[in-house]
Amino acid sequence: MPYTFNTPDDERAMLSAIGVDSIDRLFDGIPRDMWLSRPLDLPPAMGELELTAHLSELAARNSPAGDKVCFLGGGSYDHFVPAAVDQLAGRGEFYTSYTPYQPEVSQGNLQAMFEYQTLIAQLTGMDVSNASLYDGGSAVVEAAMMAMSATGRRGKIVVLGSVHPEYREILDTYLLPLDAEVVTIDAPQGAADAAAVASAIDDRTACAIVQQPNFFGCYEAVDEIGRAAHAAGALFVVSVDPISLGLLRRPGDYGADIVVAEGQSLGTPLLYGGPYLGIMACREAFVRRMPGRIAGETVDRHGRRCWVLTLQTREQHIRREKATSNICTSQGLFALRAAIYLSLMGPQGLREVAELCLRKTRYAAERLANVDGLSLAFDRPTFKEFVVRAEGGNVESLLATAADDGFHAGVPLGRWYPQLKDCFLVAVTEKRTRDEIDHLATSLGSHSRTLATSHA
Amino acid sequence: MRNQQATQLLFELSKPGRRGAKLPASDVPARSLSDLLPAEHAAAFPPPLPELAEPDVVRHFTNLSTKNMSVDTHFYPLGSCTMKYNSKRNERIAALPGLANLHPYQSEDSLQGLLQLLYELQGMLCEISGLDAASLQPAAGAHGELTALMVAAAYFRDRAQQTGEPRRTKVLTPDSSHGTNPASAAVAGFEAVTVRSTPDGFVDLADLRAKLDRQTAVFMITNPNTLGLFDRQVREIAHLVHEQGGLLYLDGANMNAILGVARPGDFGADMMHFNPHKTFSGPHGGGGPGAGPITVRAMLEPYLPSPVVTKVGDRYRLAFDRPKSIGRVRSFFGNTGVLVRAYCYLRTHGPDGLRRVSEQAVLNANYLLAKVKDRLSVPHGDRCMHEFVASAAKIKAQRGISAMDIAKRLLDYGFHAPTVYFPLTVKEAMMIEPTETEGKETLDAFADALVRILDESPETLHDAPHTTPISRPDEVRAARTPVVRWSPSA
Ligand SMILES: Cc1ncc(COP(=O)(O)O)c(C=O)c1O
User: With a 6 A CB cut-off, is B361 part of the ligand 1 pocket?
Assistant: First the structure.
């Protein structure tokens, strides 16, 4: 152990106060034949110096964004994180506290939760937000289950094929064993046909789930799909990129009942996929069906405004198997980070981030479309991502050679979309420069020509 | 001394035109926005967020932070949550760009160091649990429970196909279990059935026998249980469950008591989750992040979520091609940052250190128990593992002092309160878990405060806390007329 708190003298005094003569006796409650009769087979202990060296060595065998220019997206983005986010969220009083069960000594966390909830409501145009879920993917299935319970329709949901494929896998994992039908409407041209979506929604459907902008960066016909869902008595669930709301209409403005999002873009680094932030907001009518913690305003005994965890009868520690969800520990720290990020950005800052993404993305799309051997897979406007098709189809080797040139150039799509096996997804955040985009185009250009020739 | 800016909300501090961040000018050729963004998707105005300068934001959140108790500032004996010290070394390491700045869709080639770490972590968790295979994907303990129950459901579906046995529809949990256990069972589509505890706090075998049948998929046990007691019947329980063809799940929230001492796989568990944010010192972050890796017996391995990390020759790979896998429970790999800290923790402690963690956690808990038991009843005996549950029921009957009163008064003495009113099987429960990262002086001071509080007037306690930023809030009002966001007043 790296720390010694109880000295040998302390230990003796403590054992004697307990009335036993050795620490082993304290484990008498465990039958001897269940004791492990050997030391655990684990590597030996390391001090801080060796540990730091060891982990630095492991870290050196990875190529982080920064060492290579990152054009990867698909739900996790290389956005800029202002220093104040790290500094403030890193304060021990936030960082090493827990769920605010004792409101009198947790007003910092509770007020920050309340502010986060308000910011998310303002951002999405919804009435209310919870205080966080695990991630954007599990937030989608939580929304689906919420819709099932709100509508009493447990048999069917409709989801667009342009929703993040991993989010859809999570839907399948949770819902298929419950004999629910998950109907997927393909988006062969980069976005779904709203009429096809509408005709799939019927009076058994709990909700229609749309991602806006979708996984390919394209826009869906959200108004039509929302109307179709409501006409059939289903809920309209929208998964958004929070950064896009600096420019795009808010889901609350086009009729969403539940909004979910991956909140990583709001002030959290890439972290190889987590911990991130599951965002969920909804209309007032559904607040009592929402999963997760919620902070609410009240007064203390002296009439002072303050905040508490509220509507707890939704939750597992009170309702056990009848709870709206099983979630307990969620992602409080990342809700805090998002609150700090949004406070720093403000409406104008967020708009500028979104605008930079949009402008640079279009520039990059046009640059890559002009590269020999590359073309855009879909003829549609996009927000911060776009799909590139590589003639000759050898996406993996193209991306591998671009990696040698110093780029994380894109996410191959074949794993999820067999018809797009010659395609990859490129994301451009406000951090990318014109220079980097130009160099990416040059790199891909030289290699796509070589690959195309070697295939001929 | 308190600063106004901490009591005002961000929205009240906002002033039109203030800015907190300056973005670079666009360096790509200028285009009109309407060329780039279809009109039907464009917002008429930016979202109505508050407008603040960076110093406003810094002062606001810094002042807010001072209204929290935390492990870095206070003793935090919140039972079942294992609020141990979170080493700063792990923070600096986890922030190394080579670990923190990795994109989830980078190629495996560009991730060999991280994949090695994760692969080794899988192995270490298997070794500590005495089980055969691991999934690092679940995002918290409850998520691990749910994932394991989905794994069990898939396993039984396969078995039903092979043997024609009827569907298993039930998951059994003890009445002393954490609320997430029955809630996870319900989310996974099972009927949650409660098994009684005996008066001395263990699983009531007669009740278990009566409720176990061929429809039982899983019995979920917490061992040591939520009373801080090791249930010695666990092997017999495993035998009974297995006799009916069921699986034994271990809620590993209390692993801090038995690291290197006893292994769930050796005493009969078929699957379990870890809470690395508890046992392996992941900072709790005001309510997460956590992680909920699970380990299982070999026959369940094919059903684990994908991907898992494998080693082929000297290369580390992400294995997706696992046809029996339940699929995904979370996007991307999982809560990697928490797992990196868990790896650091395990490498810091090694086999002897881990065992010493449990020894010291159990020593501290027993010492505290010995110090308070003459004044505060501890219904389940003189010995405990890493935590114990005291009851204020007698004192409440005699003097009207509740567990809540005591908890609130402890805040005045500068201690975070224990977990109160859990487990539900103990009246006026106070669940106290000191952890191993505290020394005798702190435990003495806490015990002294507790004893002194018991001698204070009931009025003082009913009105406690007296010295905190706020007094007791009106929770009923908060729930009756929920105000869960700020709105501009009319
Ligand atoms: C005994 C027990 N089981 C399960 C959980 C759930 O773990 P988590 O909060 O990480 O989801 C907890 C902690 O809250 C617990 O104490």
Answer: no
